[in-house]
Design brief:
Elements lengths: L3 H18 L1 H12 L4 H5 L3 H20 L2 H20 L4 H15 L2 H13 L3 H29 L1 H14 L1
Length: 170
């Protein structure tokens, strides 16, 4: 089997992992105004994503060691996508916080599961591992730019929905 295809998906997944985690910190600039809440009062809702990301890595790593990593990555893409769409459809702080927590849970799959796969496929290649890292960092950079553009042009909800659909399609 050609090893380029799994690398492409693992690299794109790394991009999406970091991208999804930084949609909210940009979109919150529009959300707090639309909901008539203070910026700080709205910004703290994102804490749920980061706490659930951290907590979900342990069970994700355990499952990744005992189950097929490729199956875990399918769950990553679909779960992240559905969570993003759900965040875009949120009607208030409680539903948005729950959706952000779900984003964190599914994003928590990436590092313990996919990094192990990258290392295995790379056979110790520093270049392959570095390229994967570039994709993750581009996710950080892309989130602010694309979220800002989508929010300005279509509204903050689409900043979650569009990448959610893309993740599911991948």
């Amino acid at each position: 089997m050609d090893q380029k295809r799994p690398f492409i998906f693992l690299n794109v997944a790394h991009f999406l992992d970091h991208y999804f985690m930084l949609i909210f910190p940009t979109a919150v600039l529009a959300i707090h105004r639309e909901w008539g809440r203070g910026y700080g009062d709205t910004l703290w809702l994102g804490t749920a994503a980061f706490v659930s990301l951290g907590l979900s890595t342990l069970p994700a790593g355990w499952l990744g060691d005992r189950w097929r990593r490729s199956s875990m990555m399918v769950i990553f893409f679909i779960g992240l996508g559905l969570s993003g769409i759900t965040a875009g459809l949120a009607t208030g702080p409680v539903s948005l916080t729950a959706a952000l927590a779900a984003i964190g849970v599914f994003a928590g799959i990436y590092h313990p599961v996919a990094i192990a796969a990258v290392v295995r496929l790379a056979h110790g290649s520093g270049r392959a591992i570095a390229l994967n890292g570039v994709f993750g960092n581009m996710g950080f950079a892309g989130a602010a730019i694309v979220t800002g553009l989508l929010t300005v042009e279509f509204g903050w909800r689409w900043a979650f929905i569009v990448p959610g659909v893309v993740s599911i399609l991948l």
